[in-house]
Design brief:
Blueprint: E1 2-7, H1 13-27, E2 33-40, H2 48-59, E3 64-66, H3 69-79, H4 84-95, E4 103-106, H5 115-120, E5 123-127, H6 138-147, E6 152-159, E7 169-176, H7 180-188, H8 194-200, H9 206-231, E8 235-238, E9 241-244, E10 253-254, H10 256-265
Parallel strand pairs: 1-2, 1-4, 2-3, 4-5, 7-10
Antiparallel strand pairs: 5-6, 6-7, 8-9
C-alpha cells in the first residue's frame, strides 16, 4: 500500500476540501494508497479554521500530529533569529518518528520547509502555474500572466526545496488562456497596465477571475492524478530527480490529457 504523509496548516475550506477529495478517492478505491498521518503546524485553539480541519482529520480516524509554529516562534526567534525554522523542523521530525511514508504532500502548509526536512522526506507541493511559469501566490501568478500577455498557463506539483517554488516539476497540466471564452476579456484590457487594472477593478477583473476559475478547477484533479501516478509507479523521485517508470529522468510528468478528461466528465470543459 502506497503511503502518503499529509502536511497542512488547515487554515480554511480549501485545506479541508483537498483532504476530503483525496480521502474519498482512497476509500472508493480510485487510489491504492493510505494516509498514515496528518501533520499541522497549528494546535487546537490556534484558529477556528484549523480546529475544523482537525475535526475532519479525526472523523477519518487518521493519526493527527500538531505542533504550533506560532507558539514556537517568539522564544526561538529570540534565541536563533536566523535559524528558528530549522529548529522547528527538527522538532517536527522528532514528532513524526515511527511513522512511515513513501511521499509527503504539502496541501496548504504555510511554512517554507528547511533543508534537513527536504532531505529526509520526499515532499511535493502544488503551485498554480505551469513549469517555467511565474512564481508566487496564485494572485501574483495571474497578474504576471496578464502582464506578460501569456498564451497559456497551468498547474503543477513540484519537488519541495528550501527555495520557495524553485523545486523541479514533478507532474503538471496546461491549458490555454486564449480563445473564445478569453479573447473578449483580453480585448477589454487592451492598452491598460496591470497597475491600472488593479487600481480600477482589482480581483474583480473578468480576465483575472476567468484564469483563476480555470486554474482552480484543475488543482484537485491534478493532485488526485499525481497521487495515482506515484502509487502506480508511473513517476518516482530518485536521488532528488524526477524519473519515469523506467528510471529515465524527466522534466515533469505531463497529465494534461488526463486532467482534461476529468474536466470533461464533470462538464467543466
Amino acid at each position: 500500500m502506497y503511503l502518503i504523509g499529509w502536511f497542512s496548516t488547515g487554515r480554511g475550506k480549501g485545506s479541508r476540501d483537498l483532504l476530503t477529495v483525496v480521502q474519498d478517492s482512497i476509500q472508493q478505491g480510485n487510489i491504492k494508497a493510505r494516509i498514515p498521518f496528518v501533520f499541522s503546524n497549528r494546535e487546537p485553539g490556534d484558529a477556528p479554521g484549523s480546529d475544523l480541519f482537525f475535526e475532519l482529520v479525526k472523523s477519518y480516524h487518521i493519526p493527527l500530529i500538531h505542533f504550533s509554529s506560532r507558539r514556537f516562534l517568539p522564544q526561538k526567534r529570540r534565541e536563533s533569529p536566523s535559524g528558528w525554522r530549522l529548529e522547528y523542523d527538527k522538532e517536527v521530525m522528532k514528532r513524526l518518528e515511527g511513522f512511515h511514508q513513501d511521499l509527503c504532500i504539502l496541501a496548504g502548509y504555510m511554512l517554507v520547509v528547511g533543508s534537513e526536512m527536504c532531505q529526509k522526506y520526499t515532499m511535493i507541493n502544488l503551485h498554480p502555474a505551469a513549469p517555467g511559469g511565474p512564481a508566487g501566490t496564485w494572485q501574483e501568478v495571474i497578474w504576471k500572466l496578464i502582464e506578460n500577455k501569456a498564451e497559456s498557463t497551468g498547474a503543477m506539483m513540484h519537488l519541495v526545496t528550501p527555495e520557495l517554488d524553485k523545486g523541479p516539476p514533478v507532474t503538471y497540466c496546461t491549458f490555454p488562456i486564449r480563445g473564445q471564452s478569453f479573447d473578449r476579456h483580453w480585448k477589454d484590457i487592451e492598452g491598460l497596465s496591470v497597475a491600472q487594472i488593479i487600481k480600477q477593478q482589482g480581483e474583480e477583473n473578468q480576465l483575472f477571475k476567468l484564469i483563476r476559475q480555470h486554474g482552480f478547477a484543475r488543482e484537485l484533479p491534478l493532485i488526485i492524478a499525481t497521487i495515482k501516478a506515484f502509487s502506480q509507479g508511473k513517476v518516482k523521485i530518485e536521488a532528488g530527480k524526477v524519473v519515469d517508470r523506467s528510471g529515465q529522468a524527466i522534466a515533469g510528468y505531463d497529465l494534461t490529457s488526463e486532467i482534461d478528461k476529468a474536466m470533461r466528465q464533470k462538464h467543466l470543459l
